[in-house]
Amino acid sequence: MPPQAPVGSGRDRYPALPQPYPTFPLALHDPVVLTRQICDVESVSGNEKDLADVVEGALSALPHLEVVRDGDAVVARTTLGRDRRVVVAGHLDTVPVAANLPVRVVGEGAHAELWGRGTVDMKGGVAIMLALAAELAVPSYDVTWVFYDHEEVASDLNGLGRLARTRPELLAGDFAVVGEPSNAGIEGGCNGTLRADVVLTGVAAHSARAWMGDNAIHHAGEVLSRLAAYEPQTVDVDGLAYRESLNAVGVSGGIAGNVIPDRAVVTVNYRFAPSRSVEDAAAHVREVLHGFDVTVTDAAPGARPGLDAPAAADFAKTVLERTGGEPAPSTAGPTSPGSASWACPP
Ligand SMILES: [Zn+2]
Protein backbone atom coordinates (compact mmCIF):
# COMPACT_ATOMS: atom_id res chain seq x y z
CA MET A 1 0.00 0.00 0.00
CA PRO A 2 1.51 3.38 -0.89
CA PRO A 3 2.05 5.73 2.06
CA GLN A 4 -0.97 7.88 2.73
CA ALA A 5 -1.03 11.51 3.68
CA PRO A 6 -0.04 11.91 7.34
CA VAL A 7 -2.77 13.64 9.28
CA GLY A 8 -2.50 16.14 12.10
CA SER A 9 -0.41 19.24 12.28
CA GLY A 10 2.81 20.17 14.03
CA ARG A 11 4.27 21.31 10.74
CA ASP A 12 6.11 24.24 12.25
CA ARG A 13 8.36 21.64 13.84
CA TYR A 14 8.18 18.87 11.28
CA PRO A 15 7.98 20.26 7.75
CA ALA A 16 5.21 18.82 5.63
CA LEU A 17 6.30 15.82 3.64
CA PRO A 18 5.40 15.44 -0.03
CA GLN A 19 2.07 13.64 -0.33
CA PRO A 20 2.59 10.74 -0.62
CA TYR A 21 6.19 10.94 0.49
CA PRO A 22 8.78 8.48 -0.76
CA THR A 23 10.26 5.75 1.37
CA PHE A 24 13.45 5.84 -0.64
CA PRO A 25 15.92 7.40 -0.62
CA LEU A 26 15.85 7.56 3.14
CA ALA A 27 16.22 11.01 4.68
CA LEU A 28 19.36 9.97 6.55
CA HIS A 29 20.06 13.46 7.84
CA ASP A 30 16.59 14.11 9.23
CA PRO A 31 15.75 11.56 11.96
CA VAL A 32 12.14 12.70 12.26
CA VAL A 33 11.34 12.27 8.58
CA LEU A 34 13.45 9.13 8.61
CA THR A 35 11.39 7.68 11.47
CA ARG A 36 8.20 8.28 9.50
CA GLN A 37 9.68 6.72 6.39
CA ILE A 38 10.85 3.53 8.03
CA CYS A 39 7.74 3.16 10.18
CA ASP A 40 5.60 3.31 7.06
CA VAL A 41 7.51 0.38 5.58
CA GLU A 42 5.53 -2.26 7.48
CA SER A 43 7.91 -4.83 9.00
CA VAL A 44 5.94 -7.09 11.31
CA SER A 45 8.16 -10.02 12.37
CA GLY A 46 8.68 -12.32 9.39
CA ASN A 47 7.95 -9.51 6.96
CA GLU A 48 11.14 -7.48 7.38
CA LYS A 49 12.39 -7.94 3.82
CA ASP A 50 11.18 -4.62 2.39
CA LEU A 51 12.62 -2.61 5.25
CA ALA A 52 15.87 -4.58 5.21
CA ASP A 53 16.11 -3.82 1.47
CA VAL A 54 15.62 -0.10 2.10
CA VAL A 55 18.18 -0.07 4.93
CA GLU A 56 20.70 -2.09 2.95
CA GLY A 57 20.26 0.21 -0.05
CA ALA A 58 20.74 3.37 2.00
CA LEU A 59 23.82 2.12 3.85
CA SER A 60 25.43 0.58 0.77
CA ALA A 61 25.48 4.03 -0.80
CA LEU A 62 27.77 5.29 1.99
CA PRO A 63 31.42 4.84 1.03
CA HIS A 64 32.65 4.65 4.65
CA LEU A 65 30.61 1.53 5.44
CA GLU A 66 31.10 -2.10 4.52
CA VAL A 67 27.64 -3.68 4.32
CA VAL A 68 26.72 -7.36 4.75
CA ARG A 69 23.23 -8.79 4.34
CA ASP A 70 22.27 -11.97 6.22
CA GLY A 71 18.67 -12.99 5.72
CA ASP A 72 16.78 -9.86 6.71
CA ALA A 73 19.55 -8.59 8.94
CA VAL A 74 21.87 -5.84 7.71
CA VAL A 75 25.30 -5.30 9.23
CA ALA A 76 27.28 -2.17 8.33
CA ARG A 77 30.81 -1.58 9.58
CA THR A 78 33.45 1.08 9.52
CA THR A 79 36.90 -0.36 8.85
CA LEU A 80 39.21 2.39 10.04
CA GLY A 81 41.61 0.08 11.85
CA ARG A 82 40.81 1.57 15.25
CA ASP A 83 42.02 -0.47 18.22
CA ARG A 84 38.52 -0.78 19.64
CA ARG A 85 35.14 -1.51 18.08
CA VAL A 86 31.66 -0.68 19.34
CA VAL A 87 28.66 -2.72 18.20
CA VAL A 88 25.26 -1.02 18.11
CA ALA A 89 22.28 -3.24 17.39
CA GLY A 90 18.58 -2.65 16.96
CA HIS A 91 15.70 -4.69 15.59
CA LEU A 92 13.81 -3.90 12.40
CA ASP A 93 10.62 -5.82 13.19
CA THR A 94 7.51 -4.79 15.06
CA VAL A 95 4.57 -6.51 16.67
CA PRO A 96 1.46 -6.68 14.43
CA VAL A 97 -0.04 -3.49 13.07
CA ALA A 98 -3.28 -2.43 14.78
CA ALA A 99 -4.70 0.16 12.38
CA ASN A 100 -1.76 2.37 13.36
CA LEU A 101 0.04 2.81 10.05
CA PRO A 102 0.88 5.06 8.34
CA VAL A 103 2.34 7.15 11.12
CA ARG A 104 0.34 10.19 12.22
CA VAL A 105 1.52 13.46 13.70
CA VAL A 106 -0.45 14.21 16.85
CA GLY A 107 -0.29 17.56 18.60
CA GLU A 108 1.30 20.76 17.51
CA GLY A 109 4.53 22.68 17.74
CA ALA A 110 6.85 21.54 20.51
CA HIS A 111 4.21 19.01 21.61
CA ALA A 112 3.90 17.29 18.26
CA GLU A 113 4.49 13.56 18.43
CA LEU A 114 4.71 10.74 15.92
CA TRP A 115 2.14 8.01 16.56
CA GLY A 116 2.11 4.64 14.88
CA ARG A 117 3.41 1.07 14.99
CA GLY A 118 7.13 0.97 15.60
CA THR A 119 7.65 4.63 16.46
CA VAL A 120 8.67 3.64 20.01
CA ASP A 121 9.72 -0.01 19.70
CA MET A 122 12.01 0.57 18.02
CA LYS A 123 12.11 2.34 14.69
CA GLY A 124 12.66 5.69 16.39
CA GLY A 125 15.90 4.12 17.65
CA VAL A 126 16.59 2.53 14.27
CA ALA A 127 16.23 5.97 12.67
CA ILE A 128 18.83 7.39 15.08
CA MET A 129 21.13 4.45 14.33
CA LEU A 130 20.77 5.05 10.60
CA ALA A 131 21.36 8.79 10.96
CA LEU A 132 24.47 8.17 13.06
CA ALA A 133 25.72 5.47 10.69
CA ALA A 134 25.53 8.05 7.91
CA GLU A 135 27.01 10.90 9.92
CA LEU A 136 29.86 9.14 11.73
CA ALA A 137 32.21 8.59 8.81
CA VAL A 138 35.27 8.98 11.03
CA PRO A 139 34.29 7.82 14.53
CA SER A 140 36.90 7.50 17.27
CA TYR A 141 36.03 3.81 17.64
CA ASP A 142 35.27 1.53 14.73
CA VAL A 143 31.52 0.95 14.76
CA THR A 144 29.41 -2.01 13.69
CA TRP A 145 25.74 -1.20 13.08
CA VAL A 146 23.46 -4.23 13.27
CA PHE A 147 19.86 -4.04 12.05
CA TYR A 148 18.24 -7.40 12.73
CA ASP A 149 15.03 -9.32 12.20
CA HIS A 150 12.68 -11.38 14.38
CA GLU A 151 13.16 -9.77 17.78
CA GLU A 152 9.49 -9.69 18.69
CA VAL A 153 8.93 -13.44 18.35
CA ALA A 154 10.34 -16.71 19.72
CA SER A 155 13.99 -16.34 20.67
CA ASP A 156 15.12 -19.20 18.40
CA LEU A 157 14.12 -17.04 15.39
CA ASN A 158 15.97 -13.96 16.66
CA GLY A 159 18.19 -12.51 13.93
CA LEU A 160 20.83 -11.40 16.40
CA GLY A 161 20.99 -14.91 17.80
CA ARG A 162 21.31 -16.26 14.26
CA LEU A 163 24.24 -13.94 13.56
CA ALA A 164 25.88 -14.93 16.85
CA ARG A 165 25.59 -18.61 15.91
CA THR A 166 26.45 -18.46 12.23
CA ARG A 167 28.57 -15.35 11.68
CA PRO A 168 30.00 -14.37 15.07
CA GLU A 169 32.82 -12.44 13.39
CA LEU A 170 30.24 -9.85 12.32
CA LEU A 171 29.41 -9.15 15.96
CA ALA A 172 32.98 -8.98 17.27
CA GLY A 173 33.63 -5.88 19.35
CA ASP A 174 34.79 -4.50 22.68
CA PHE A 175 31.50 -3.01 23.76
CA ALA A 176 27.92 -3.46 22.58
CA VAL A 177 24.72 -1.50 22.92
CA VAL A 178 21.41 -3.13 22.07
CA GLY A 179 18.74 -0.54 21.49
CA GLU A 180 15.27 -0.80 23.01
CA PRO A 181 12.87 1.85 24.30
CA SER A 182 14.51 3.05 27.53
CA ASN A 183 13.84 6.78 27.32
CA ALA A 184 17.50 7.34 26.41
CA GLY A 185 18.72 5.62 29.57
CA ILE A 186 21.21 2.80 29.92
CA GLU A 187 19.99 -0.49 31.31
CA GLY A 188 23.04 -2.54 32.09
CA GLY A 189 23.22 -6.29 32.60
CA CYS A 190 20.46 -8.33 34.16
CA ASN A 191 19.69 -10.73 36.99
CA GLY A 192 20.02 -14.47 36.54
CA THR A 193 17.10 -16.78 37.09
CA LEU A 194 16.78 -20.21 38.66
CA ARG A 195 13.76 -22.45 39.13
CA ALA A 196 13.73 -25.32 41.58
CA ASP A 197 11.22 -27.87 42.83
CA VAL A 198 11.03 -28.51 46.53
CA VAL A 199 9.63 -32.01 46.81
CA LEU A 200 7.83 -32.88 50.04
CA THR A 201 6.98 -36.44 50.93
CA GLY A 202 4.68 -38.08 53.46
CA VAL A 203 2.65 -41.23 53.88
CA ALA A 204 -0.61 -41.72 52.01
CA ALA A 205 -3.73 -42.71 53.95
CA HIS A 206 -7.50 -42.50 53.69
CA SER A 207 -8.60 -39.23 55.20
CA ALA A 208 -11.08 -41.10 57.36
CA ARG A 209 -8.06 -42.55 59.15
CA ALA A 210 -5.73 -39.59 58.73
CA TRP A 211 -3.65 -40.62 61.75
CA MET A 212 -2.35 -43.52 59.67
CA GLY A 213 -0.67 -41.10 57.25
CA ASP A 214 1.67 -38.12 57.12
CA ASN A 215 0.41 -35.15 55.08
CA ALA A 216 3.03 -33.99 52.53
CA ILE A 217 1.12 -30.77 51.76
CA HIS A 218 1.35 -29.76 55.41
CA HIS A 219 5.13 -29.99 55.16
CA ALA A 220 4.94 -27.23 52.55
CA GLY A 221 3.95 -24.88 55.36
CA GLU A 222 7.51 -24.63 56.62
CA VAL A 223 8.82 -24.03 53.08
CA LEU A 224 6.30 -21.25 52.53
CA SER A 225 7.07 -19.73 55.95
CA ARG A 226 10.76 -19.53 55.11
CA LEU A 227 10.03 -17.97 51.71
CA ALA A 228 7.62 -15.47 53.25
CA ALA A 229 10.20 -14.50 55.88
CA TYR A 230 13.07 -14.34 53.36
CA GLU A 231 14.59 -10.91 53.00
CA PRO A 232 15.94 -10.53 49.47
CA GLN A 233 19.19 -8.71 49.02
CA THR A 234 20.04 -5.79 46.82
CA VAL A 235 23.50 -6.44 45.41
CA ASP A 236 25.84 -3.83 43.99
CA VAL A 237 27.50 -5.02 40.79
CA ASP A 238 29.82 -2.59 39.02
CA GLY A 239 27.95 0.30 40.60
CA LEU A 240 24.43 -0.83 39.76
CA ALA A 241 21.97 -2.11 42.36
CA TYR A 242 20.38 -5.44 41.45
CA ARG A 243 17.30 -6.39 43.47
CA GLU A 244 17.05 -10.10 44.08
CA SER A 245 13.92 -12.09 44.86
CA LEU A 246 13.05 -15.61 45.96
CA ASN A 247 9.45 -16.65 45.57
CA ALA A 248 7.13 -19.60 45.45
CA VAL A 249 5.70 -19.58 41.94
CA GLY A 250 3.77 -22.84 42.09
CA VAL A 251 2.34 -25.35 44.56
CA SER A 252 0.99 -28.76 43.64
CA GLY A 253 -0.12 -31.83 45.54
CA GLY A 254 -3.06 -34.04 46.34
CA ILE A 255 -4.77 -36.70 44.27
CA ALA A 256 -8.29 -36.90 45.68
CA GLY A 257 -10.59 -35.26 48.19
CA ASN A 258 -10.36 -38.20 50.58
CA VAL A 259 -6.66 -39.04 50.42
CA ILE A 260 -3.92 -37.77 52.70
CA PRO A 261 -1.29 -36.81 50.08
CA ASP A 262 2.13 -38.41 50.19
CA ARG A 263 3.71 -35.91 47.79
CA ALA A 264 3.64 -32.16 47.26
CA VAL A 265 5.86 -29.81 45.28
CA VAL A 266 6.59 -26.15 45.86
CA THR A 267 8.21 -24.54 42.81
CA VAL A 268 10.44 -21.59 43.61
CA ASN A 269 12.02 -18.96 41.39
CA TYR A 270 15.17 -17.15 42.44
CA ARG A 271 16.21 -14.02 40.57
CA PHE A 272 19.83 -13.45 41.49
CA ALA A 273 22.38 -10.73 40.95
CA PRO A 274 24.81 -11.19 38.04
CA SER A 275 27.72 -11.39 40.48
CA ARG A 276 26.49 -14.86 41.51
CA SER A 277 27.05 -17.94 39.38
CA VAL A 278 24.25 -20.43 38.79
CA GLU A 279 26.07 -22.77 41.23
CA ASP A 280 26.17 -20.06 43.90
CA ALA A 281 22.50 -19.36 43.32
CA ALA A 282 21.58 -23.03 43.67
CA ALA A 283 23.65 -23.29 46.85
CA HIS A 284 21.87 -20.25 48.26
CA VAL A 285 18.41 -21.69 47.60
CA ARG A 286 19.48 -24.97 49.22
CA GLU A 287 20.77 -23.08 52.23
CA VAL A 288 17.54 -21.13 52.66
CA LEU A 289 15.56 -24.36 52.31
CA HIS A 290 17.98 -26.48 54.32
CA GLY A 291 16.48 -29.82 55.28
CA PHE A 292 14.27 -30.03 52.21
CA ASP A 293 14.74 -31.90 48.94
CA VAL A 294 15.58 -29.16 46.40
CA THR A 295 15.98 -30.00 42.69
CA VAL A 296 17.04 -27.28 40.26
CA THR A 297 14.97 -27.61 37.07
CA ASP A 298 16.07 -24.59 35.04
CA ALA A 299 18.64 -21.82 35.36
CA ALA A 300 20.29 -19.08 33.33
CA PRO A 301 23.10 -16.85 34.55
CA GLY A 302 22.74 -13.09 34.74
CA ALA A 303 24.91 -10.67 32.84
CA ARG A 304 27.21 -8.16 34.49
CA PRO A 305 26.74 -4.61 33.26
CA GLY A 306 30.45 -4.29 32.55
CA LEU A 307 30.26 -0.55 33.14
CA ASP A 308 33.83 -0.57 34.43
CA ALA A 309 35.10 -1.34 30.91
CA PRO A 310 36.61 1.86 29.45
CA ALA A 311 34.27 2.12 26.45
CA ALA A 312 31.26 1.45 28.67
CA ALA A 313 32.39 4.01 31.21
CA ASP A 314 32.81 6.62 28.44
CA PHE A 315 29.36 5.79 27.16
CA ALA A 316 27.72 6.02 30.59
CA LYS A 317 29.45 9.35 31.26
CA THR A 318 28.30 10.80 27.95
CA VAL A 319 24.72 9.61 28.45
CA LEU A 320 24.71 11.13 31.94
CA GLU A 321 26.01 14.47 30.61
CA ARG A 322 23.54 14.63 27.75
CA THR A 323 20.41 13.22 29.33
CA GLY A 324 20.98 13.24 33.08
CA GLY A 325 20.18 9.54 33.00
CA GLU A 326 22.11 7.34 35.43
CA PRO A 327 22.65 3.75 34.30
CA ALA A 328 20.14 1.35 35.84
CA PRO A 329 19.95 -2.43 35.96
CA SER A 330 17.70 -4.07 33.46
CA THR A 331 14.64 -5.68 34.97
CA ALA A 332 14.32 -8.05 32.02
CA GLY A 333 15.58 -11.58 32.38
CA PRO A 334 18.24 -13.26 30.28
CA THR A 335 15.63 -14.59 27.90
CA SER A 336 16.64 -13.45 24.45
CA PRO A 337 19.87 -13.48 22.50
CA GLY A 338 18.79 -10.00 21.49
CA SER A 339 18.61 -8.76 25.01
CA ALA A 340 20.70 -8.10 27.99
CA SER A 341 23.14 -10.98 28.06
CA TRP A 342 24.44 -9.92 24.70
CA ALA A 343 24.35 -6.26 25.56
CA CYS A 344 27.30 -6.54 27.89
CA PRO A 345 30.90 -6.33 26.83
CA PRO A 346 32.65 -9.70 26.76
ZN1 LIG B 1 11.97 -3.82 20.91
UniProtKB/TrEMBL annotation:
The keyword Hydrolase applies. Residues 320-346 are annotated as: Disordered. Keywords: Hydrolase, Metal-binding. Its EC number is 3.5.1.18. It comes from the Bacteria. It holds the Pfam family Peptidase_M20. Residues 192-289 form the Peptidase M20 dimerisation domain. PANTHER family: ACETYLORNITHINE DEACETYLASE, N-ACETYL-L-CITRULLINE DEACETYLASE. This is Succinyl-diaminopimelate desuccinylase. It comes from Luteimicrobium album. The gene is dapE.
